[in-house]
């Protein structure tokens, strides 16, 4: 593989899709798909509460009704939309920061630094999973920081609205509030969206992740009662590998901004835009 010119390796594209867009979206979908067990472990108790309080027009014992399917579909739609919108906010924040720094004429080195730091953070998150991540440990630490009040208010908002919202279209809102809960599945994705500096990429990547989580959470709420701790641990190993891959790509591209070329695989959908200094 021939080294790519540093000038074409911009890790963001203001207002458009970031690097390796198609590849990245596929990876985010896989993270969501494989991370479904993590979602069940973190949000399963809340989902179980929704199931217990969900009324059904069909009183057949043990039968899954169309009404229940609709409610769980709305709940997961709310979650996915929430993830996508928060991803948009992170992407927009990155774009705003890059635009501001660009006025100072130091955009390239600054983007390189963001790529290196963010890639390293995602790598660490991946390594913690391979090293024996204990579900809820990191979330608990973060919840205990200054932003813990946001999580506390989210839990309160959910718990006080379950009875009012769970049996109508308001369950969309219950799902949306889950985007504000502490989640180690989302943190690396939000960081990646920020580093890309594209609201559109943030929207699509976090939307793809949310869609990937739907099968597991939907089945858990309708026909599956539990996922064993051993199964969740295996999933954490897989997520660790995926996060390490994402982090390494971002890290390598950050170093390229400083002229340090690290090996990168042939990534599908790589299309440098001639003369633009960006990658689609």
Question: End-to-end span in angstroms?
Answer: 19 Å
Strand content: under 5%
Strand count, sense and barrel status of the largest sheet are: 2 strands, antiparallel
Structural class computed from helices and strand pairing: mainly alpha
The helix-strand sequence is HHHHHHHHHHEE
Distinct helical segment count: 10
Q: Low-confidence parts, pLDDT < 50 over ≥5 residues?
A: 1-20, 268-280
Topology, number of strands? 2
Residues in helix, %: 55-70%
The Rg value, from CA coordinates, equals 20 Å
Strand order of the largest sheet: 1-2
Mean pLDDT value: 77
What is the total number of structural domains?
A: 1
Molecular shape: globular
Organism: Halococcus saccharolyticus DSM 5350
Protein name: Urease accessory protein UreH-like transmembrane domain-containing protein
Keywords: Membrane, Transmembrane, Transmembrane helix
InterPro entries: UreH-like_TM_dom
